[in-house]
Design goal:
By secondary structure, this protein is α+β, with helices and mostly antiparallel strands. It has 10 helices and 9 strands.
Amino acid sequence: MRNISFDVPEIDYLQLMERLKGYAYPRDKVTKLLCSGELVRIRKGLYLSTTTSIPYSKEILANLIYGPSYVSLEYALQHHGLIPEAVRVITSVTTGRKKRYRTPVGIFDYAHLPERCFAPGSQYEPVDSTRSYMIASPAKDLFDTLFLRYPSVRFAEIEAHLFENMRIDEDEFSRIDFSGIEALLKQCHRPSIRALRQLVQRRKNRDQTPNFYIIYIESMANCMYNSL
């Protein structure tokens, strides 16, 4: 019996049929591979090979199970180091309908995001030299989470909500670059997104405003030095 090997562990139906094209009855071979545990069926048309030396990626699977989609929301918040909690469900956003898939390797959740909000701020993250997946940038992840999970948060509540309720790391928040979704922040009128935009702008203005007390002390020190 010939051993079947694959270059990557995540395999769709077309890749599988291409690999098995030398068999007279490729579908029978698929059944045998599933029964032996060499293949694991994730959903219709998507499989994992258990014989590759490369570990599979849940994030790649998330992109493949249902699309168009990219990893976002709670799972991405954890991935970016913005929250301390471990997140078991792989969460994504999609322009399609809301879905949940229970698979042998975990639960995959998909929340609907309007198409106008979908593309800006998503990025490719490498797994290795040949594989990558799409995930929300830290800025887009906060946008998606506030837009979908907490749409009614107001500016007066935004800091407490982010840093206490959601337990966003404030130091990590201060390092987030929002320039990639600046237009999206301006175009969206949902209360929580307006609040996020105002918070980002206020902190930006604060960082750019000179500290006049420090300037005064430095000026006085220079005067004293020059008078000696």
